[in-house]
């Protein structure tokens, strides 16, 4: 299967892909970048629309690349075979990936999210590395989905996609306002639990986890907003026994998810 050969980093197609590093460009086009053959194949296998496929001439004959090319062309996309200079222009890494995919973004509605075991809701998460790691953990424990509440970092940034290690393609995501989420939370059939320090907070091991569980986590610095923490029926904390007074958001979410899995089977 043929692909267009591009050898100049100044090519307009390459400039357009590089521009997707900017959030404004991702928002306007509805596209984002996924680096690496594994991540590209994850996107294809999960049914995401592949808009552009860029690969190094060294890997042009591999079966996986042929398969990715077929998927891209079948969906109306274009394929480009490139050299080292072009890949170095497109990649953030010291060792550039030999395959880069440009995918169409996908965001679910709250009503479309599955509610089988556990959904993680994140209020104003700011760090794309944390968000990507949480997506990977949600995927790893077999939880259902992630909800982004209010002004969160972009889940389709290069940093978030990379940190997710391909799990972004497997975990449904929804974005919503605090008001819409509060209404969604009040109609939830199961346990609704947030991590937060207040006079109502109990040790996370003392709470009741009835499936499906809605786990609500706050901002890295400020935690949950007063509006949202006040509306939550159950607030829990992870006890700190050393000198540190808190855990990284992604780590704390992982601890909670594995505890929920252990309590609910």
What is the number of independent domains? 2
Instruction: Average the pLDDT over all residues and give the rounded result.
Output: 94
- Our Rg estimate from Cα atoms comes to 20 Å
CATH topology of the largest domain: Alpha/beta knot
The name of the CATH superfamily of the largest domain reads SPOUT methyltransferase, trefoil knot domain
SS content category: alpha/beta
Could you estimate the helical fraction of the residues in percent? Answer: 25-40%
Low-confidence stretches: none
Count of individual beta strands: 12
Report on the architecture of this protein.
With 265 residues, the chain is α/β, with parallel strands linked by helices. Helix content is 35%, strand content 22%. It folds into 2 domains: 4-104, 2-Layer Sandwich (60s Ribosomal Protein L30, Chain: A); 110-264, SPOUT methyltransferase, trefoil knot domain (Alpha/beta knot, 3-Layer(aba) Sandwich), CATH 3.40.1280. The chain has 10 helices and 12 strands. Strands 8-7-6-11-9-12-10 form a 7-stranded parallel beta sheet. The protein has a 5-stranded mixed beta sheet with strand order 1-4-3-5-2. The longest helix has 16 residues, at 249-264. The relative contact order is 0.14.
Please give a quick description of this structure.
By secondary structure, the chain is an alpha/beta fold. It is 35% helix and 22% strand.
Topology:
Blueprint: E1 4-6, H1 12-18, H2 23-29, E2 31-35, H3 37-45, E3 50-56, H4 63-74, E4 78-82, H5 84-90, E5 99-104, E6 118-123, H6 128-141, E7 145-149, H7 158-164, E8 173-176, H8 178-186, E9 191-195, E10 202-203, E11 213-217, H9 226-231, E12 234-237, H10 249-264
Parallel strand pairs: 1-4, 3-4, 6-7, 6-11, 7-8, 9-11, 9-12, 10-12
Antiparallel strand pairs: 2-5, 3-5
């Amino acid at each position: 299967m043929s692909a267009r050969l591009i050898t100049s980093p100044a090519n307009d197609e390459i400039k357009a892909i590089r521009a997707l590093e900017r959030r404004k460009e991702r928002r306007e086009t509805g596209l984002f970048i996924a680096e690496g053959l594994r991540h590209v194949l994850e996107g294809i296998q999960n049914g995401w629309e592949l808009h552009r496929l860029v690969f190094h001439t060294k890997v042009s004959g591999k079966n996986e690349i042929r398969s990715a090319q077929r998927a891209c062309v079948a969906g109306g996309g274009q394929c480009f075979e490139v050299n080292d200079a072009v890949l170095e222009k497109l990649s953030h890494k010291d060792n550039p990936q030999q395959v880069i995919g440009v995918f169409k973004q996908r965001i679910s509605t709250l009503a479309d999210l599955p509610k089988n075991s556990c959904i993680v809701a994140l209020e104003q998460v700011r760090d794309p590395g944390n968000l990507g790691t949480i997506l990977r953990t949600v995927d790893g424990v077999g939880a259902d989905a992630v909800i982004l509440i209010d002004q969160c970092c972009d889940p389709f940034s290069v940093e978030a996609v990379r940190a997710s290690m391909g799990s972004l393609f497997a975990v449904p995501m929804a974005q919503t306002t605090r008001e819409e989420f509060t209404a969604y939370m009040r109609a939830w059939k199961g346990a609704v639990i947030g991590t937060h320090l207040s006079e109502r907070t109990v040790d996370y091991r003392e709470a009741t986890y009835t499936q499906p569980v809605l786990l609500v986590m706050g901002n890295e610095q400020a935690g949950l907003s007063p509006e949202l923490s006040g509306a939550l029926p159950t607030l829990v904390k992870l006890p700190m026994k050393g000198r540190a007074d808190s855990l990284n958001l992604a780590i704390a979410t992982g601890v909670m998810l594995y505890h929920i899995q252990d309590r609910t089977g």
